[in-house]
Amino acid sequence: MTRFERSVISLGNERVVREALLNAVAHRNYQMQGYVLVRQYPETLNIESPGGFPYGVTPDTILDCSLPRNRLIAEIFECAGLVERAGQGINLMFELSVREAKALPDYTRSDASNVRLTINGLLIDPALLRMIQNIEEQTLTQFATEDFLVLHELSSGYRPSKIYAGRIPRLMDLGLLEKVERGHYVLSRKYYIQKGEPGTHTRRVGLIAEECKALIEKHIRLSGNRGVPIKEFQELLSGTPSRRVRYFLDQMRVAGTLRSEGRGRGALWFLIGQK
User: Fold this and answer.
1) Over the stretch 37-55, which tens digit does the pLDDT of each residue have?
2) In the predicted model, is pLDDT for residue 6 greater than 60?
3) Distance of CA 25 to the CA centre of its chain
4) pTM (2 decimals)?
5) Domains of the chain, start order
6) 72 partner at 20 to 30 Å CA-CA among 59, 79, 201, 236?
């Protein structure tokens, strides 16, 4: 077990393990011979059940599809109080994994013959755990599964999936996220300070800025020699404040990458040396 300030985080969360086992029993293919196999290792728990996912369900869509293969068994589990609500077990597993700063349940080894789940018990991001706990204590906030997935994706260095875009404004209001540029978000500087890596926040913000500059340069190159007005850059970087777009252009001019002809909003921008 790992002690983290006032919390004790079990290597294997009892509710996660219970939901995983119940899902394996309720959703296995009973037309196929074989058993539900449980293999426990020092850091992981592997559960394997006969039959692949129901039609339309994949490891990527498992949170969005609720297609019980054996509906009667799932309803019996619900009536017996073994699950909170049929079809919500997977969501609970993902929520608790992020809440405890662990890796997400992994179904990627599944195939047409077997569903294979790996549950990892090790903490991978104590700073995120502490931040979530503090916000819940201070604001009595209730997070949804999608909130936890946004936080997990950002803490793992990925851009949040578009399907979770509606959760971002609320997470920003809570001080968990910061918007950097068009469609780009990072975990707040407070998170990186708690993690002891404030330089990582600065680096990620800088990398996003460089990505925007590269997009500007590509657009000018594809536009040929006609010159590009600032209006097109604002459309290109939709959501980025106009002063920020102008800041990028000025930086690229000072660096010797761009030149401009004309003044103000009527100015046209060119790549230096472009033929």
Assistant:
1) 999 888 889 999 998 888 8
2) no
3) 29
4) 0.61
5) 2-120 (3.30.565.60), 126-195 (no CATH), 208-271 (1.10.10.10)
6) 59
